[in-house]
Amino acid sequence: MKKNKKPGFSTLAVHAGEARKKYADSVTTPIVQTSTYVFHDAKDIKDYTSGKKYRYEYLRYGNPTVDVAEKKLAALDGAEAALLFASGMNAITTTLLCFLKTGDHVVFTSDVYKKTLQFIKDDLKRFGIESTMVAPTADEITAAIRPETALIFTESPTNPYMFVVDLKKLVKAAKKAGIPVIIDSTFATPYNQRPLEFGVDLVIHSATKYLAGHNDVLGGVVLGSAENIAKIKAFLKTLGGNIDPHAAYLIIRGLKTFALRIRHQNDSALKIAKWLVKHPKIDKVWHPGLPDHPSYKIAKEQMDGLSGCFAFELKGNLRNTQTFLRNLKLILMGPSLGGTESLISHPATITYYDMTRKQRYALGVRDTLCRLAVGVEDADDIIADLEQALATVKLK
Ligand SMILES: Cc1ncc(COP(=O)(O)O)c(C=O)c1O
Fold it and tell me: Active-site positions?
């Protein structure tokens, strides 16, 4: 390897964070599945508590398998440090609670994950923290800043319409106002977008999705400066939303094929989106790689790749959409994204089942909206499945 040359993305995904010599000369990182660690001498305790010697004490405070996963994730996002959680929601809630206090105000964007919206809008309100929800654009976010605004939270790309926020513009305005910016970058992954390079303060991913990548584990990660991550880690030790070592191992394992998966999913998603655009029973396709998407230009400038996920709307009504979904034979109907199996979600009846149509339409979630999370199957097989299911839809 040439000296001083930064390893490529796939090399980092396989090797970053891992010791060259591991327990029992294992190739893979061992799972240290223990809730507590033994002190062999009273002196060990003194050295540990005085900070003279780094070691493990108790799982809620740290674990070597989790440390490897965190170092790998930090390398991929170009962060000083990373911190894993039991789920993406745990990463979001712990981080927001860590930096907010009663009387603060949060600016956040519409088209975010439903539980994030609920937490910021309703749960934070119970603690005297107000929020303003705006459209996901740098201008709308900046215009909503108040003197008591303590942080800005947005997804980019957003869920499910794939709006991309101009990070350079947003960070410039936020820095001027002295307000930290937190981005949920789950849909993009560090392969397609590294918000820390734009000066964003903290990046969050639901590791459940593309990072672990196999629809088999929950996890969340927050990435940023060593100082910020240490602050959140201290709070995590109290709140206790730690990831289990076995789940951390599954994330390490999933990350080994990360770059291969994402490249394939990016390419397939765009190919399928372009095919859907031409289909007579499709009303609209929301993919930022299509020139008519409102974020086409900024996505091209800001992102290295786009995503394996996008949304589309059928012509017709709820019944037509349900007929289409029922007749899919390869694509599975389910609410997640980023895994090896293609999953299709119907936000109106899966994610927002508890809202009235009026409430859903206020959020832009129409009856005919579907979100397709493309897996690693062959794109042509996914297209064939969409084609046969669309053929069963009878429009008036
Ligand atoms: C964009 C986004 N962020 C966060 C989450 C929450 O992640 P988790 O399910 O790992 O708690 C999700 C879940 O779907 C999501 O789509």
Answer: 60, 113, 184, 209
